[in-house]
């Protein structure tokens, strides 16, 4: 009897367009949010997620396809092109109206869950958090909605295709935790997931990525409501720190602390 062929794995990577990590964030004049008229790029943690998906294939895992997906306005397609140039095979853009706010983590998780039910995959990889809101909730919510295993804050991933399991090393306080998960799996990547910097997209790959089609969808196509559940009342910068002072002895320190009303 011939051995049963191992089915190829399908991987989905969720990416987000955020303000570039090198940009100094400023609150907009109306104090409704931050100034977004600045350079944007792929969320660094999501860039690590794309790199991990590509490395799975390079390590010999039987990966059939790597899909990337993003929710965002028209310009969000730029980061999909970047992911395609890095080695992804297909891209999907869930378009939001220009000027619309990014949906909250629960809305993103619902959209991703709806897409996975439409296009079944074995592993969903996304960054542990986005550097704009630092919520760090989407991956966990997605796993809950799908009823899948989850490996969060991952620094290492090993997939056993035969047993349909994955061993994930998680970043925890004081070290790493190794867990074994059954596929399908939701994985969120931490900084140490890739020892090397995510690959630089070469010019030939960038040119090829420009010619690849990007699937366009809307929230209505996925049957999800992205209406916000939270309201931002006001955004303001933290108070500027004032300079400190020197004291000659402990008694002077205590006097200053009493004068400041902290003791």
Question: Which structural traits does this protein have?
Answer:
single chain, 263 residues, alpha/beta, Rossmann fold, 9-stranded mixed sheet, two-stranded antiparallel sheet, 27% helix, globular, disordered N terminus
Structure description:
It comes from Exidia glandulosa HHB12029. Heterodimer of an alpha and a beta subunit. Residues 32-226 form the Electron transfer flavoprotein alpha/beta-subunit N-terminal domain. This is Probable electron transfer flavoprotein subunit beta. It contains seven helices and eleven strands. By secondary structure, the protein is α/β, with parallel strands linked by helices. The chain has a single domain, classed as HUPs (Rossmann fold), CATH 3.40.50. The strands form two sheets. It has a nine-stranded mixed β-sheet with strand order 9-8-7-10-6-1-4-5-11, sandwiched between helices. Strand 8 (165-172) and strand 9 (175-182) form a beta hairpin. Helix 2 crosses helix 5 and helix 3 (105-118) packs across helix 4 (138-146). It is globular.
Overall body shape: globular
Which stretches of 5+ consecutive residues score pLDDT under 50? 1-5
CATH topology label: Rossmann fold
Largest sheet, in brief, is: 9 strands, mixed
Pfam family, one: ETF
Keywords: Electron transport, Mitochondrion, Transport
GO cellular component, one term: mitochondrial matrix
Subunit structure: Heterodimer of an alpha and a beta subunit.
